[in-house]
Design goal:
By secondary structure, the protein is α+β, with helices and mostly antiparallel strands. It has 7 helices and 14 strands. The strands form 3 sheets. Strands 8, 9, 10, 11, 12 and 13 form a 6-stranded mixed β-sheet that branches. A 5-stranded mixed β-sheet has the order 4-1-6-5-14. A 3-stranded antiparallel β-sheet has the order 3-2-7, with no helix packed on it. Pfam families: NUDIX (PF00293).
Length: 346
């Protein structure tokens, strides 16, 4: 693919994604596989669509965003709160809860920690993203405690009964064990620079404040060209050059949405590939009256076969990366910890 102003812009956009900056893309116009198109494909196969083409993610109505915080003190104790809700009263859990209308992801995390533990925090990075179906997302963050007073039983309220720093989770009755893996991820990240063999972790990445009308996966797909051993990135040529983008189907798992999109681009005989993880997240609530709460997940996808063995049927092409950007991306690919883990629950 010859170097042109358009393809040079692709490299600038990739640098923007790696720096957790918004691209300024109007995803509605650059979406390569919308819900309407996904429904048309399903109907052509004799399958009744399971989601309306005009689905819009709206908090409290059609989409759920959860925030959870994994925080450690200088003694490597994790911050836990005791539940007040009748269904799980007395059980322990991470500070967590539903995002509210008008909130950013970080604002929701800071609020939940304060309400449930009494502590003030500054969020520093995303640790993981969990997805169930295409309309339930949990954003797991960590950060630094900057003040506040740890909630005691005397300050119990509807948010929590108390909070404390815990060294041995086995001594507490937990609301659910799903937080154990999140705590392990947080502890490993917290200890990344002091481990006997330091691993390459992703930098501190917080969600970029940028509004999207719907939910999207923006795919950064990379592949090696055997002849030159060069790293290439997939570029959509629909309308203007951009990274291939698919609207998230609210009734399917994220893996299913991604796979069906890949079939649109590569055909039924899909070359072997895998999601490496999330490079960055874009979200900002729409202005009053909060008509949508869309997000865009920038996901890194790695292809195993060489470029010469992979055929394209969609309106896409491969762009060979310049050496500095190739080296930067190659370092990311060399470590499984260099992107934010994406855990697809179902």
């Amino acid at each position: 693919m010859p170097q042109t102003n358009a393809t040079d812009a692709i490299e600038q956009k990739l640098l923007g994604i790696l720096a957790a900056q918004d691209l300024g893309d109007i995803t509605q116009e650059l979406c390569d596989f919308s819900l309407e198109e996904q429904n048309a494909t399903a109907e052509a196969q004799g399958i009744q669509p399971s989601a309306s083409a005009d689905y819009v993610p709206v908090l409290g109505k059609s989409v759920t965003y959860i925030v959870a915080c994994v925080l450690f003190n200088e003694r490597d104790e994790v911050l836990m709160m005791q539940e007040a809700k009748q269904s799980c009263a007395g059980k322990w859990y991470l500070p967590a809860g539903r995002m509210e209308k008008g909130e950013t992801i970080c604002e929701a995390a800071v609020r939940e920690v304060y309400e449930e533990t009494g502590l003030n925090v500054d969020a520093t990075t995303l640790l993981a993203i969990e997805v169930a179906g295409g309309s339930w997302f949990r954003f797991v963050l960590t950060g630094r405690v900057t003040g506040g007073i740890l909630k005691t039983p005397a300050q119990a309220d509807n948010e929590s009964l108390q909070a404390k720093w815990v060294s041995r989770l086995s001594e507490l009755p937990l609301r659910a064990n799903d937080i154990l893996n999140l705590i392990d991820i947080g502890r490993a990240y917290n200890e990344r620079t002091t481990a006997p063999q330091p691993l390459m972790y992703h930098p501190e990445i917080l969600p970029t404040k940028y509004s999207h009308h719907k939910n999207y996966l923006r795919v950064v797909a990379v592949i090696r060209k055997r002849a030159t051993n060069s790293l290439n990135v997939l570029v959509s040529e629909k309308n203007v050059h951009h990274f291939p983008t698919v609207e998230v189907h609210p009734q399917r798992s994220l893996h299913s949405t991604l796979r069906k999109f890949m079939i649109e681009l590569f055909g039924a005989e899909l070359p072997q590939h895998r999601p490496h993880g999330i490079l960055s997240v874009e979200h900002c609530p729409s202005p009053m009256p909060y008509t949508s709460d869309g997000i865009c997940l920038n996901v890194l996808v790695v292809f195993r076969p060489p470029l010469e063995e992979v055929a394209l049927i969609g309106k896409c092409t491969w762009h060979e990366l310049g050496r500095p950007l190739e080296e930067k991306l190659a370092r990311i690919l060399s470590s499984k910890y260099s992107t934010i883990p994406l855990n697809v629950i179902r």
